[in-house]
Design goal:
Layout: E1 2-8, E2 12-16, E3 21-25, E4 27-30, E5 51-54, E6 62-64, E7 77-79, H1 90-104, H2 109-112, E8 114-123, H3 125-128, H4 131-141, E9 143-149, E10 152-165, H5 166-175, E11 191-197, E12 202-208, E13 211-212, E14 218-220, H6 224-233, H7 241-251, E15 258-262, E16 265-268, H8 270-291, E17 300-304, H9 313-319, E18 323-325, H10 329-345
Parallel strand pairs: 1-8, 8-10, 11-17, 17-18
Antiparallel strand pairs: 1-2, 2-3, 4-6, 4-7, 5-6, 5-9, 9-10, 11-12, 12-13, 12-14, 15-16
Helix pairs in contact: 5-10, 6-7, 6-8, 8-9
């Protein structure tokens, strides 16, 4: 049975199967709001990474893809970022179905018949301890899914749903290799702190013998969106958080950040972004100190999440010993979910 791993984050959606990996925004656009001229770009040899999705439980067609933000229709995007009852939200249900359908496009069986899969999905630790939330998410994911993508129908039946705490994804990602074999056995005997810095939340957990320490755990609603809002508040003109996110991610390597209002109106905001990143990083360090009251008892501190690439990593390394920043942090959790599925479902 194939395994579909889903990391349906507040800002980004990460997906993995045995055939492909995807990173897309966690926003969708009603097809009625899509510019009619977009279809003519194909005649000019211009291809946008945007596909049209449709499910039987919704009358509308929806656009989803990496290039949605480039359309600059930010006021029309349907966002799934929320902190309560997220899994019962209609936009989230659409996103989950689209994600399963997108993964199915890489398998011929989903085009000709009903493809049977097992789904592994991760949730924040607080949600994992909420039975109502787990049941709601399981209902969204389990069972029959029919998804039309660019006019072609894909049928998937989710036979098994495995929901795990997000830190388990990080831990399994480091613990196992790509075939699900144990490669970091020493971690099983260590007290491991895991910091997952996402778009909407910062999750701080402690694992020992694959068990969570309930006292050394905290969830903060101060993810990357807080950083983007802080940057936006320092620019006097009306700006888009989606465009702020895009420029921060694009400029983080060379430390050059510019906000483009138009071709002739480009504002250099490098100083603002660098100051806010330092403030965000300092606040993160303070929260870590507060959560890990006995930091010396932590053998290894693992930092992951898409926002871990944005923070000032040197500030964190100067404060704590034995800090490990996960490589390919955006995909670390979903790869760990997939490895977890391998251990449960088998080859």
């Amino acid at each position: 049975m194939e395994i579909f791993a889903l990391d349906l984050g507040n800002k980004q959606t990460k997906l993995k199967s045995s055939k492909a990996e995807y990173v897309l925004p966690s926003q969708i656009l009603n097809g009625n709001d899509l510019p009619q001229q977009l279809g003519t770009l194909g005649n000019l040899g211009i291809k946008r990474d945007i596909q049209m999705f449709k499910t039987p439980f919704d009358d509308q067609s929806w656009a989803w893809g990496k290039d949605l933000v480039n359309l600059r229709l930010d006021d029309y995007l349907q966002d799934t970022l929320m902190y309560r009852d997220r899994y019962s939200n209609h936009a989230f249900k659409l996103l989950a179905n689209f994600a399963i359908g997108l993964l199915a496009t890489d398998f011929e069986s989903a085009k000709k018949e009903i493809m049977q899969v097992a789904v592994v999905a991760g949730v924040p630790t607080e949600d994992y301890n909420n039975q109502e939330q787990l049941e709601t998410l399981t209902t969204v994911l389990k069972g029959q899914h029919q998804v039309d993508i660019d006019g072609q129908t894909f049928n998937v039946k989710v036979e098994t749903v495995m929901i795990v705490p997000q830190p388990i994804g990080t831990f399994y990602g480091v613990l196992l290799d790509n075939e699900g074999n144990l490669v970091k056995e020493e971690l099983l005997d260590e007290r491991v702190g895991i910091i997952d810095i996402g778009g909407g939340t910062v999750l701080i957990d402690t694992l020992m013998n694959l068990e969570f320490d309930k006292k050394a755990r905290k969830q903060y609603s101060t993810g990357a969106n807080d950083l983007y809002e802080s940057i936006a508040s320092r620019i006097q003109d009306n700006v888009s958080l989606y465009q702020i996110e895009k420029l921060v991610r694009a400029g983080i390597d060379d430390k050059q950040f510019s906000y483009r209002f138009s071709k002739n109106n480009i504002l250099d905001i490098t100083d603002i972004v660098e100051q806010e990143i330092k403030s965000f990083s300092a606040r993160l360090i303070s929260n870590l100190r507060s959560t890990f009251k006995d930091i010396k008892s932590i053998d290894t501190l693992i930092v992951t999440g898409g926002t871990s690439n944005i923070i000032d990593q040197d500030m964190v390394k100067d404060t704590f010993e034995k800090v490990v920043f996960v490589l390919d942090a955006e995909l670390a959790n979903v790869r760990g979910f997939y490895k977890y599925g391998l251990t449960e479902v088998g080859d």
